[in-house]
Design goal:
It is an enzyme of class 4 (lyase). It comes from Grylomicrobium aquisgranensis. It catalyses: (6S)-NADHX + ADP = AMP + phosphate + NADH + H(+); (6R)-NADPHX = (6S)-NADPHX; (6R)-NADHX = (6S)-NADHX; (6S)-NADPHX + ADP = AMP + phosphate + NADPH + H(+). Its cofactor is K(+); Mg(2+). By secondary structure, the chain is an alpha/beta fold. The strands form two sheets. The protein has a ten-stranded mixed beta sheet, sandwiched between helices. Strands 3-2-1-4-5-6-7 form a seven-stranded parallel beta sheet, sandwiched between helices. Strand 2, helix 4 and strand 3 form a beta-alpha-beta unit. Helix 3 packs parallel to helix 4. It is elongated. Bound molecules: ligand NPW and adenosine-5'-diphosphate. Adenosine-5'-diphosphate binds next to helix 18 and helix 19. The site of ligand NPW has 31 residues, from helix 1, helix 2 and helix 3.
């Protein structure tokens, strides 16, 4: 289960255990994990802070002291919580406080255990702590962080550049958003979770997605199915110079198994795209007949995607208005459609059907008029806020794509690889989202399924190929292997 710091505190409070019991359990679970995974170590140095994360460190030190040579360091003053103070009094190893002595001890340690800050950390490191942490990071020691790498925030994943870097981070009881954002911060190589035996609720605001949950939401075609069983999917995209974007939408829809696809595009790219794809029903349009061609389609489709490669599309502003006003199904807005919303995205509040926006970070930056680096450091919060304020599903794309729902549900995607960092892969995702929205009425689930599958197939596609050579046109074939393995 993934949970934020507030949820974790609520879980602790309702667990039936006292804070001291939880600290003892946490310290013991971490000490056991360290003993079994770092059994070859002799000297262990514990860096402890003044909060309960430091308290966990004192428990770990007491337990490991029977088998290892342990030294503890109080790097941020005396323990400040009752539980940490009690754990400290039971510690019998050497305790260092002087920064020079701590750095000297670090040079002789086989393993450094980082228990300075856990979920209680917020903001930036003090100058003193930055100096200590950067010296430690430069020593390239074996490091194990407890719960959260010190200097990083649990809920936002924001981190100080001098935050402790570890080989392993042991999450206590649940993964926190920080653990789900590894590709962004790269503060640890591996994360493991130890259980504290706290009962978990059935529902968390964080959705998790894997092969099993994907297939739980992916419908099977019955024997008596016909082409319209799941309804139609409509993609409106491409324009002169960007015909391929509509092609990628089509490949995306094929990847998720869409059985009736309307492909709507300007006249000038129709022959190019139609000669490449045989199964979509094409609806070419121009300046004069845009309404006549597009409007009827909007009433006879289960999902619409608009915007991929639409930079040079005639009447694109009018199409956006038409789609938002007339559609009676979920609408995915990608690329150019998002750019058209810059400065007037308040209109999203008046749309009755679910709207899914799929910006990458640059597009989101232009949309909300905030610098990219501000968004990068606060992606979860800003995505949730936007989704709630404008009642949309926001797919903020990146190495860990975030999906935020208007009601505060969140998904932090774990699948994918750098092979996806190429032009066209967002258009592919848009087609996959529209296709899965046609097959699954739960908008949040369908969108998260598409995001997960997109990343998963990229991983599959780079298993026997160079990551920078990922061929996006292979996605339907890669998906076919997956579905076949699951008995489809
Ligand atoms: N999950 C569980 O079930 C269990 C969790 N447990 C453990 O408790 C941990 C949470 O403990 P915690 O709440 O005491 O906070 P912790 O992370 O030790 O640090 C807070 C201290 O740091 C300070 N501080 C913050 N930011 C700072 C900054 N920028 N620069 C300088 N100082 C800063 C902050 O000060 P303040 O916020 O008051 O200003 C406070 O003094 C959790 O991660 C886990 O390890 C187990 O013991 C039991 C079971
Ligand atoms: N390093 C990466 N790891 C995993 N996924 C990535 C990475 N870089 C990009 N992606 C994914 O690739 C897609 C790129 O989309 P986008 O930038 O809109 O491309 P385009 O508009 O050119 O089609 C997104 O789904 C994003 O999450």
């Amino acid at each position: 289960m993934i949970i934020d710091s507030r949820g974790m505190r609520q879980l602790e409070a309702s667990s039936g255990f006292t804070n001291a019991q939880l600290m003892e359990t946490a310290g013991k679970a971490c000490a056991d994990w360290i003993s079994s995974h770092f059994s070859a170590c002799r000297n262990i140095l514990l860096l402890c802070g003044k909060g309960n994360n430091g308290g966990d460190g004192f428990v770990i030190g007491r337990i490991l002291g029977s088998a290892f040579h342990v030294t503890a360091a109080c790097v941020d003053g005396a323990p400040a919580t009752k539980e940490a103070q009690d754990a400290f009094t039971l510690l019998s190893c050497d305790v260092l406080q002087d920064p020079d002595a701590i750095l000297q001890a670090a040079q002789h340690t086989d393993l450094l255990v980082d228990c300075v800050y856990g979920v209680g950390f917020h903001g930036t490191l003090s100058a003193r702590m930055k100096k200590l942490f950067s010296s430690i990071n430069n020593m390239h020691l074996h490091v194990c962080s407890i719960d959260i790498n010190s200097g990083a925030e649990s809920d936002s994943g924001r981190y100080d550049p001098d935050a402790i870097r570890s080989d392993v981070t042991i999450a206590l009881d649940c993964y926190k958003p920080f653990h789900m954002l590894r590709k962004d911060h790269q503060l640890f190589k591996h994360a493991y979770m130890v259980s504290l035996g706290i009962p978990h609720p059935d529902h968390s605001a964080f959705l998790e997605m894997n092969e099993d949950s994907f297939f739980a939401g992916y419908p099977r075609k019955k024997e008596n199915a016909y082409k319209g069983t799941f309804g139609k999917t409509t993609v409106i995209g491409g324009s002169y110079g960007m015909a391929g974007a509509l092609g990628m939408n089509i490949i995306g829809a094929k990847t998720v198994g869409v059985s009736y696809l309307n492909a709507v595009c300007p006249h000038e790219i129709y022959p190019v795209v139609a000669s490449r794809f045989l199964t979509p029903v094409f609806h070419p349009f121009g300046d004069q007949d845009m309404y006549r061609v597009i409007e009827p389609l909007l009433y006879d489709t289960r999902a619409i995607a608009f915007g991929s490669g639409a930079v040079n599309m005639p009447k694109k502003e009018e199409i956006l208005d038409l789609v938002l006003q007339a559609a009676d199904c979920p609408v995915v807005l990608d690329a150019e459609a998002i750019r058209l919303l810059n400065h007037n995205y308040y209109i999203l509040r008046f749309v009755h059907e679910p709207v899914i926006l799929t910006p990458h970070i640059g597009e989101f930056s232009s949309l909300i008029n905030r610098p990219v680096d501000v968004i990068q450091h606060d992606r979860i919060h800003l995505a949730l806020q936007f989704a709630k304020d404008y009642k949309v599903f926001l797919v903020l794309k990146g190495p860990h794509t975030i999906v935020a729902s208007p009601t505060g549900d969140l998904y932090i995607n774990q699948s994918g690889c750098s092979g996806l960092a190429q032009a066209g892969s967002g258009d592919l995702l848009t087609g996959m989202i529209a296709g899965l929205l046609t097959m699954n009425n739960d908008v949040f689930q369908a969108v998260c399924m598409a995001v997960w599958l997109h990343g998963y197939l990229a991983e599959e596609g780079t298993k026997d190929h160079a990551a920078n050579m990922l061929d996006l046109s292979r996605f339907p074939a890669l998906a076919d292997s997956l579905y076949f393995r699951h008995g489809f």
